[in-house]
Amino acid sequence: MANAVLDRATFVRPIAHRGLHDAERGVLENSAPAFAAAIAGGFGIECDVRSAVGGMPVVFHDADCQRLLGLALEVASLGATEFAALNYPDGSPVLTLAALLALVEGRVPVLVELKDDWKGADMDFLTEVARLASAYRGPLAVMSFEPQLMAAMSQLAPAVPRGLVAADFATDPQVVRVLGAPRAASLAEMEAFETAGASFAAYHVEALATPAIRRLRQDGLPVFAWTVRDERQLAIAVEHADAPIFEGGIRSAIDHLSCSTGQRQ
Q: pTM of the prediction?
């Protein structure tokens, strides 16, 4: 089966990392206000999705609620009723993936990063993500650090484009400790790109100048740079990637880039 292809004309544009958030102004990452701001700006959206009880896909980066909500709760332990009671400090609800897609309504492309914390595929979770992604009538792609998740998605939702997220894991002591040096190096080089059914990559901006990235771009496959936070990193992204996944005080430079390249619509 051929890999689902990411449409360059739609997706290759600046992507707002976890939405267009600004904590100093009370707009938190992965929240409805952050996504609404990205839509208003014409930016694509990147979001984090992980599993709550029963495999329910929820839009939340961390494994627990302490940093963002001040609650000593594990996301994986939350049932639908408990999750529905969660709100950010501004009063907006913490979103499920279904609620996020209803909010976006196809207006901008969405990159959905599936989180598994290196624990392996939760098939209930992946099956529900696949159902929602396949039914969605807008531009959406899924991606993950874990090739196993993308390989599973290639079977569950073959028409949904898939990508690998990576960095120079071989020099990351924490990743090496958890996964071992050989697997860390393999992930850094994206050796499982084909077996994962991937058609694009998102790579850490500070490690973009790698043979793996050069090979992908030579083959015409899109590469996103994450996470671009300043003009130096933006210059790296412009040279070595196709579009930045950005956040922070880089908005004016992103706007200038979009105008000069015609990336945003």
A: 0.96
